[in-house]
């Protein structure tokens, strides 16, 4: 099981200083919807942005974490 | 992982203008994100190929390696990896998918 705090702290580990909002979509602690605002996304495609976030979850993706729905924005967007 | 399945994926994404690797089929999706992606692709009124990775464990793993992307569904247009459900929906909302589909279909004519 992964908590909303785990999700937030993993993303902050990968993208320090990001603004992260996490919502448990199903109440089952395995489907999360996340909104991340980070400077690191500037000049990057959506694919590159999502990869930056996914990199923090390689050990749990498809296992404890079934789904991570992402919205990735730069501070200016 | 066998070269054969990687070659098969390469061949699939290059031979279909619009293709989705998904859980289940277009007619019976087995996951909400796959279902949502099929709905978006279906809205363009063009044929698209669906590949059900739930019936092929080897391909399931290989697709993730092929795209360097950890989740399913995965959408390809004109042989190019677009992303998963979130990216498809976001690009769809911005009107960025239609021109890609038109180009991909025109290239096959």
What's this, in brief?
Helix content of chain A is 26%, strand content 26%. Chain A has 77 residues and is α+β, with helices and mostly antiparallel strands. Chain A has one domain: GMP Synthetase, Chain A, domain 3 (2-Layer Sandwich), CATH 3.30.300.90.
- Integer tally of domains of chain A: 1
On the 0 to 100 scale, the average pLDDT of chain B is 95
The tally of helices of chain B reads 5
Instruction: Quote the distance from N terminus to C terminus of chain A.
Output: 32 Å
Evaluate the radius of gyration of chain B.
13 Å
**CATH class call of chain A:** Alpha Beta
- Major sheet strand order of chain B: 2-1-3-4
Order of helices and strands of chain A: HEEHE
Helical fraction of chain A equals 25-40%
Low-confidence stretches of chain B: none
Q: For the report, how would you describe the main beta sheet of chain B?
A: 4 strands, mixed
- The class by helix and strand makeup of chain B works out as alpha+beta
Shape of chain B: globular
Say how many strands of chain A there are.
3
Tell me the greatest interface: A-B, 14 and 14 residues
Shape of chain A: globular
- What is the number of beta strands of chain B? 4
What's the CATH class label of chain B? Answer: Alpha Beta
Strand content of chain B: 15-25%
User: Per CATH, what is the topology of chain B?
Assistant: Glutaredoxin
Structural description of this entry:
The complex is a heterodimer of chains A (77) and B (109). Chain A is an alpha+beta fold. Chain A has 2 helices and 3 strands, in the order αββαβ. Chain A has a 3-stranded mixed beta sheet with strand order 1-2-3. Chain A is globular and about 35 Å long. With 109 residues, chain B is an alpha+beta fold. Chain B has a single domain, classed as Glutaredoxin (3-Layer(aba) Sandwich), CATH 3.40.30. Chain B is built from 5 helices and 4 strands. A 4-stranded mixed beta sheet of chain B has the order 2-1-3-4, with helices on both faces. The termini of chain B are far apart.
